Amino acid sequence: GTGSPSTHAPAQPRASKAGSTTAAVQTVEEHPSTPTHGSHDHHHHHHRAEGLPPSAASAAAAEDNATGETPQQQHQHQHKQHKQQQQRGIQSSKAHDQEQQTPPPAKMSTATSTTNLNLAHLLHLDRLKSAKRRARASIAAVDIPVPATPGSQLNPEAGVRQLHHAPTLERRAVLDRAFSRARRRHGGPLRMVATFITAHTRWWAIAAIILRNPMLWTLLLAVAISASGLRRWLDPASPQYVLELGWLISSLLMLTNTCVPLALFSNGVWLHGKRFWEGNVKKGLIILAIKIVVLPWVQAACAKACGLSTAAGMSLVLLAICPCASTSFVIASKYNHGPEIVTFVTVLSTVLLVPLVLAALYIPPALGIYDYDTGHFPMT
Description:
With 380 residues, the protein is mainly alpha-helical. The protein is built from 17 helices and no strands.
């Protein structure tokens, strides 16, 4: 009675081993192409069951057979999962390598983006210009038939290129009809004007920049006031001066007197910490020579050609050798186009102002260009 548990306990693993061996042999016979994997897995489970107590061995066997798959199918399923994991790892490593090899996109600075926008705008304008040329060529290739007249040698199928042989009235009638057709086709005069404006965007952009310049408007306003006769009521030296308008001329004079000092002050602020002469000496000297040598002679020749008096001619000569206007620097710095050269020429012409004025006063009488007395000049 006491020996039966110890006698029959080891018999269960042996029976299990025998049954498992028989199943493995049958599996090998059924699948001769993969004999090793099934037998290996089965022996692995058999050895695991051999080393466990009966209850644990039965639990392991139940766990192995829970899915209803044979050991060979379980091995194939595990092998397939392993290959899928390897493929996912290879793909992730390739993606990581591509991310490392791909350089980060370069950030555009403000100047680069502005330059690209300007280039795109210019390319758009060039395309519009090319389309306009093609449209002109197609219009020139179309012949407008001219009606035949008695005694005329014109061919009714002739085009505009033969129109100069036609009588004036017929030519005008043909052109009027062609213009009327074009006007109707483009939607009337207003539509034609709108088409012209949209087709010449570059011209209108340049015109808008010029019209936004306050110097142009002030010059036009001054010319309009002088030509309209309002000056006799605004000028305090005029006998028709209106005292009630004195505040207007005082305000204008105050603004006029502050323009030049403000421009010189802005020029001085811009010069702080800049070596404006570096790389601009050659260009600056050429421009300065044109201004103080060539321009005075051009002014004197124009004054002589127009028959101006001696005082008016010498005024033009003296204005030609004066330093550059302060507004020149304002415009150059506004559009960032050569403020260094303008400053270089302004500084040199200011330094040379006194000897240049004296030379301009003495040279014309010496050469006989103008006749005036130089005896009251300081150097005589």
